[in-house]
Specification:
By secondary structure, the protein is of the alpha/beta class. Helix content is 46%, strand content 18%. It has helices at residues 18-33, 46-57, 68-72, 89-99, 110-124, 142-153, 159-162, 171-180; strands spanning 5-9, 37-40, 62-67, 82-86, 102-105, 131-135, 165-168. The chain has a 7-stranded parallel beta sheet with strand order 4-3-2-1-5-6-7, with helices on both faces. Helix 3 links the parallel strand 3 (62-67) and strand 4 (82-86). The longest helix has 16 residues, at 18-33. It starts with a strand and ends in a 5-residue tail after the last helix.
């Protein structure tokens, strides 16, 4: 069985705590150790750059997807195996979703939240297949988990759809989840 392409959503900023940079590097290394490929936003800066360089060092194929206005700002990682250039952020999201099979939201900002929310919606509507993982490092996404649970309790999300969004606190939980979903055979 072919190894899945892992799509990671994360920021072009590193945040204030170096812990997140360490964990982005660990995630990239883990993707490589699993023999998977990576698709991500394509930037060389912040957590995005750390993740991509770590995955490359681990020997996996790395695809970046950048809108032209980011290319014009020269923030793309020059050593990518493949760079897909889009006109808009919306097109970028579509290309990333087309390539991904496992979708991971690393701690990040507005863009990360928007991207993983779209994955949750598409999974709920059965418009895509895949695995949605919210990487809940140090409880970063606890408020989102509480909100999704509240929405489920209030009847706005079905329990079946809520079960499609997985919160993992560490890389071991991610690996176990991916293995139980038969992505590693």
């Amino acid at each position: 069985m072919a190894k899945p392409t892992i799509c990671v959503y994360l920021g072009a900023n590193c945040g204030h705590d170096p812990f997140y940079a360490e964990k982005a590097e660990e995630l990239g290394r883990w993707i490589g150790e699993q023999g998977c490929s990576l698709v991500y936003g394509g930037s060389k800066i912040g957590l995005m750059g750390i993740l991509a360089r770590s995955a490359q060092k681990a020997g996996v194929r790395v695809t970046g997807v950048e809108p032209q206005f980011f290319i014009d700002s020269v923030v793309q990682l020059e050593t990518l195996d493949e760079l897909i250039v889009t006109k808009t952020i919306s097109e970028r999201k579509v290309k990333m979703i087309e390539r991904g099979e496992v979708f991971i939201a690393f701690p990040g900002g507005n863009g990360t939240l928007e991207e993983i929310a779209e994955i949750m919606s598409l999974l709920s509507l059965d418009l895509i297949r895949g695995l949605c993982i919210i990487y809940n490092l140090r409880g970063f996404y606890d408020p989102l988990k509480l909100q999704l649970d509240r929405m489920t309790e209030a009847g706005f999300i079905t329990p079946e759809n809520r079960a499609k969004y997985h919160f993992c606190a560490d890389i071991d939980e991610i690996e176990e989840l991916v293995r139980t979903q038969d992505f590693f055979g």
